[in-house]
Amino acid sequence: MPASAEVATTNDPPLVDSYCALLLGGELGSSSGFVPAAQALSAESLTVLQRDLPTIDLKRLTSGDPRERDVCADAMASAASEWGFFQVTNHGVGRELLEEMRREQAVLFHQPFDTKEKAGLVDGSYRWGNPTATSLRQLSWSEAFHVPLASICGEDCVHAQLSSLSLRGVMQEVADAMSRVADTVAGTLAKNLGHAGSAFPAAAGCDGTTCFLRLNRYPLCPFADTLGMVPHTDSDFLTIVCQDQVGGLEIMNDSHWVAVKPHPDALVVNVGDLFQAWSNNRYKSVEHKVVANSKAERFSVAYFLCPSHDSLIGTYGKPSPYRPFTFGEYRRKVQDDVRQTGKKIGLPNFLKCSTIS
């Protein structure tokens, strides 16, 4: 065990143990089924570019000038098509509320690891690392609580064992505020394709009972070139993210990783797989990852705009390159692929002309 492993504290999950086991496995050779450490990380060592994400001022959508509203909507659609990511300002989620959310997250995550692991929060919503990882490339140096909105303040809320009334109250406020942002953005993007925008989230099967909050923490990491979150796309319609000022979020654009510089007054929005399918590939769900930090822990909170599991993922127009599928079917296929291959395949599974068996 390296000396740097001593930085782990009693409130951190045993990520150091996972790292060292994978490192040792890689050194044993390919017969063990592990990818050697250097080879595992080489794919993530592409040159990282520093670029500003497109920034959309949501206040312009309520302008009295219809031309200004159209320009704003067009800019949002262009960002969703070209980047799959953009930032929004004047979104209505107060900075004080988000700072309070971060303080409450810190209190929750800094409880002893054994307490977090054994509490069974929200039917097992506490997650850390990646128990199925077979290489360092698949290890996520992070922990998270995946919280269904319907369970935040319910009387039978399991996570009441660990969370305070103040945390649950703040989570509810953040969820409500981010829900309004998600509805505005999703409606605008749908309207840009010719759909009745204001009706889109509900028409797609999304409401207060189907969406999620994910509270993320990325502990200090003593190992260089380690991922806080492995490259992935999101399996929803839209994700709204508040990241703190530590940084580490990177997105794939034009075959290069692009670092997203934190903006204290902006939320990050990214297109999910379902919106790409619904838009007939007009909007892009792109890979993104988080790089671990050796000097500061990082917190973020994400809102996932999801439909019910039996919702059929339609399309804004015909023909569609995808066969009909439900959200539940999509989730199950993603989980099966991860178990069988170690990675998500996602939308290519549902192409009408897919050659994936």
Automatic annotation (TrEMBL):
Entry-linked SUPFAM superfamilies: Clavaminate synthase-like
GO biological process: gibberellin catabolic process
Cofactor names: Fe cation; L-ascorbate
Tagged with keyword Amino-acid biosynthesis: no
Record PROSITE patterns: FE2OG_OXY (PS51471)
Positions of the Fe2OG dioxygenase domain: 207-307
Keywords for the protein's UniProt record, in alphabetical order: Iron, Metal-binding, Oxidoreductase
Domain of life of the source: Eukaryota
Sample GO molecular function, one term: metal ion binding
The keyword Secreted appears for this protein: no
Family: Belongs to the iron/ascorbate-dependent oxidoreductase family.
Protein name (record): Fe2OG dioxygenase domain-containing protein
Organism (species): Triticum aestivum
